[in-house]
């Protein structure tokens, strides 16, 4: 792929271009297929592009929490400007699910419950981030709570995630993100997304121990969640965009896996094949090692 400032990495697929900084041309640019949406990968039993959720029958421009069936149970997720209302943990310790109005809903495209599905709105640039390979910075200021982009890629099953993680060498970038959600009755739903071969601008986001983005699973047309990234604080133009690869509080392991994870962490901090990489985020609270979700490879 040729690298030029005016090249739109998404090739017109996004609402706004995703630029590549010209001075970063010395670094090799990875080959991958740009996709704005998740696609079904090996081991994923549901097609993320299929419309499977029921729609509301609100004939209004924008839905009201009192009458809309999409909003009635869980309440409003966004304010009237589209900013995410809850940017913190719920009592369960997991993030609260967000359901947007979908293709089967009778409300208009201007409904305030359609944010992530509207796609990228902010201009950003992929650039050479010192000592971290490629990174993403915003070209405009972003208010807290604003939707920034998805972490889109192949949605894969646990076995496939395990196979891919085991095939990685210590030099390879790790792209697989596992997200866990409380699914009621004590069950925990897990989603694995790998944007290495098919993905969007999210695949270039680096980790920080003090990130400015926050990951929130959002369901639009399908039960398969989209991993949406929102601004966790006000962000200035030119700041690097980062998120916590562990998913922070929203990604706690189920209790039965906690001891496995602890043992695995100890094993991996020794020098086996899955040596963890040094974290170069530069934050005051940096834990010095990049997170690696060892529960994927240590699960029977
Ligand atoms: C999802 S990719 C992010 C984009 C990547 N920097 C690139 O060049 O394509 C994840 C990889 O980026 C690098 N990375 C991300 N955050 C980092 C950090 N805080 N410190 C050092 N390397 C980091 C690691 O090599 C990691 O495996």
What would CATH call the class? Mainly Beta
What's the helical proportion of residues?
A: under 10%
Strand content: 15-25%
Give the overall average pLDDT. 87
Global Rg = 19 Å
Biggest sheet strand line-up: 1-5-6-14-11
Structure, explained:
This protein is mainly β and 300 residues long. It has a single domain (18-253), classed as Beta Complex (Beta-clip-like). It is built from 2 helices and 14 strands. It has helices at residues 158-167, 255-269; strands spanning 18-20, 33-34, 39-40, 98-99, 124-129, 133-138, 147-150, 153-156, 177-182, 188-199, 206-207, 213-219, 226-231, 240-243. The strands form 3 sheets. A 5-stranded mixed sheet has the order 1-5-6-14-11, with no helix packed on it. Strand 12 (213-219) and strand 13 (226-231) form a beta hairpin. The model is unreliable at 249-263 and 266-273 (pLDDT under 50). S-adenosylmethionine binds at residues 30, 132-135, 173-175, 203-204, 206-208, 277, 279-281, 290. Keywords: Chromatin regulator, Chromosome, Metal-binding, Methyltransferase, S-adenosyl-L-methionine, Transferase, Zinc. GO terms for molecular function: histone methyltransferase activity; zinc ion binding. InterPro entries: H3K9_Histone-Lys_N-MTase, Post-SET_dom, Pre-SET_dom, SET_dom, SET_dom_sf.
């Amino acid at each position: 792929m040729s690298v030029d400032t005016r090249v739109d990495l998404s090739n017109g697929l996004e609402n706004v271009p995703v630029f590549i900084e010209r001075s970063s041309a010395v670094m090799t640019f990875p080959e991958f297929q740009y996709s704005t949406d998740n696609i079904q990968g090996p081991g994923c039993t549901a097609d993320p592009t299929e419309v499977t959720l029921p729609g509301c029958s609100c004939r209004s421009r924008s839905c009201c929490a009192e009458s809309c069936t999409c909003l009635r149970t869980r309440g409003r997720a966004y304010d009237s400007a589209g900013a995410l209302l809850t940017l913190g943990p719920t009592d369960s310790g997991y993030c609260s699910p967000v359901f947007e109005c979908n293709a089967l809903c009778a409300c208009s495209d201007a409904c305030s419950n359609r944010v992530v599905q509207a796609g990228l709105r902010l201009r950003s640039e992929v650039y050479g981030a010192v000592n971290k390979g490629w990174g993403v910075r915003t070209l405009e200021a972003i208010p807290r709570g604003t939707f920034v982009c998805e972490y889109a890629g192949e949605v894969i099953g646990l076995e496939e995630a395990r196979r891919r993680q085991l095939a990685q060498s210590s030099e390879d970038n790790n792209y697989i993100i596992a997200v866990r959600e409380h699914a009621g009755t004590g069950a925990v739903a897990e989603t694995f997304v790998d944007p290495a071969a098919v993905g969007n601008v999210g695949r270039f986001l680096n980790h920080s121990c003090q990130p400015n983005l926050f990951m929130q699973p959002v369901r639009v047309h399908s039960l398969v969640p989209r991993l949406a990234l929102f601004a966790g604080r006000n962000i200035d133009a030119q700041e690097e965009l980062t998120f916590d690869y562990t998913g922070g509080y929203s990604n706690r392991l189920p209790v039965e896996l906690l001891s496995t994870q602890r043992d695995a962490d100890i094993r991996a901090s020794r020098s086996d094949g899955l040596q963890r990489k040094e974290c170069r985020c530069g934050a005051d609270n940096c834990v010095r090692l990049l997170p690696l979700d060892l529960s994927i490879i240590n699960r029977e």
